[in-house]
Amino acid sequence: MIRKAKEEDFEGVLRIFREVQNLHAENEPNIFRFCDPIDFSRFKEMLNEENMEIFVADDGEQILGFLVGVMVNMGSNLTLPRKVFGVENLAVSKHAQKSGIGESLMKKAIQFANEEKCDSVNLSVWVFNENAKGFYKHLGFKEKSIKMQLDL
Fold it and tell me: Which residues, other chains included, contact 145 with Cβ-Cβ below 8 Å and sequence gap of 6+?
């Protein structure tokens, strides 16, 4: 079942968030640390942030995945005004991957963004994460810009 997150979901979200943090730390050790990516007080703040939504997937016993998104109004003198739902994090427990949970979480986010009259759903994905890139392309996401880095 996909639903909005509650305070009681913290331990399950943290467990999966650790898996993702470790994946990033293994693949980009010059950027990411092996650490707990969130604490309970920050999780509670996130639940109460006006423009932030956290959805979880559970099987009635445990959290299997989560999605964190933020609604942002964008625009400048160079760009048109837009309302965007930005997916900050999407993660599915290793043992539950390839079961449709990630797709269900994204569909919930897209449904939410439509209801809120957003112009798009945006996200970033690390270059090393071929599984995630393929997953997002499968859902219809297209590359819009590419960030580049020169290490010094």
Answer: none
In CATH, the architecture of 2-138 is 3-Layer(aba) Sandwich (3.40)
Give the C-alpha separation, 136 to 116, whole Å: 21
Q: Where do the structural domains in the chain lie, given as residue ranges?
A: 2-138
Residues 6+ apart with CB under 8 A from 5: 13, 47, 54, 55, 56, 66
pLDDT digits (tens, 9 = 90+) for 94-137: 999 999 999 999 999 999 999 999 999 999 999 999 999 999 99
Which residues on adjacent β-strands are paired with residue 90?
67
Q: What number of helices (H) and strands (E) belong to the chain?
A: 4, 5
pTM of the model as a whole: 0.93
